[in-house]
Amino acid sequence: MKSDYKVNEIKVGNLTIGGDRTTVIAGPCSVESEEQILRIAQSAVKMGADVLRGGIFKPRTNPHDFQGMGLEGLDHLLEAKRLTGLPIITELMDASYLDVFEKHVDIIQIGSRNMYNYSLLKAVGETKKPILLKRGFSATIKEWIFAAEHIAKGGNDQIIFCERGIRTFEDYTRNTLDLTAVPIIQKETGLPIIVDPSHGTGIRDMVSIMSKAAVAAGANGLLIEAHYDPDQSISDKLQTVSMETLEEIIKIVRRLDTL
Ligand code: PEP
Ligand code: MN
């Protein structure tokens, strides 16, 4: 669906983010095993997803929760990429892994908890990789744009914003998905913005509805947590949709793309 605001196109291999087609990033919250990520990648590519996601370093609020597979998980993501051709995105939490990420990862994700980590922003600003910058959960739009400027200052203007919900007094949902950020970011920065209705709601049954709402608001893409057995997900299972639901969402999004 066409946005009222034109944004810079960001190229990732053959993929264009910020063009006429909504970019669908899909995959599990965490890479859990090679078998898991290959199975999800193979079904995601069949459905027409554009990018494979999967966390290998997980910023968990509770330190006793699963922290991610680390670089072993990256090997599994790379195997999934080799088999499906899907570009991969994963979160960088520590600049000491930047060289490995620069070499192997197609889009580097900066998570909500690190939006204020200015040394990390500066480090990714010195690369030539597209950066997906998630909104801090208590960040104003202005602070979020400043965070992007920390990246851009180093010479990297390949920035994709990602609205993933903010903390408000409302606690029915995990976060409050601020869709007004979509036109505001496009208008103020001329850069693409992707919406994450998974973290934005925390509720599996709301992901499809809010995906449609995001595309109607002009979002350049969606980031959706999906798993073949959502209830067995090691992290974020309550907001993870099945592969069948992901397929339905992608079908609707592709229809909206023609409008
Ligand atoms: C994630 O994408 O799995 C994640 C940890 O997101 P956020 O940084 O938005 O909480
Ligand atoms: Mn998650």
Tag the structure with descriptive keywords.
binds phosphoenolpyruvate, TIM Barrel, alpha/beta, 259 residues, eight-stranded parallel β-barrel
Explain what the structure shows.
It is built from 9 helices and 10 strands. The termini are close together. The chain is of the alpha/beta class. An 8-stranded parallel barrel has the order 3-4-5-6-7-8-9-10, surrounded by 5 helices. Strands 1-2 form a two-stranded antiparallel sheet. The protein is globular and about 40 Å long. Helix content is 37%, strand content 15%. Helix 1 runs parallel beside helix 2 (71-84), helix 4 (118-125) crosses helix 5 (141-153) and helix 8 (207-216) runs parallel beside helix 9. The protein has helices at 34-47, 71-84, 98-104, 118-125, 141-153, 181-189, 197-201, 207-216, 243-257, and strands at residues 10-12, 15-17, 23-27, 51-53, 88-91, 107-110, 131-134, 159-163, 193-195, 221-225. The chain has one domain (10-257): TIM Barrel, CATH 3.20.20.70. Phosphoenolpyruvate binds next to loops.
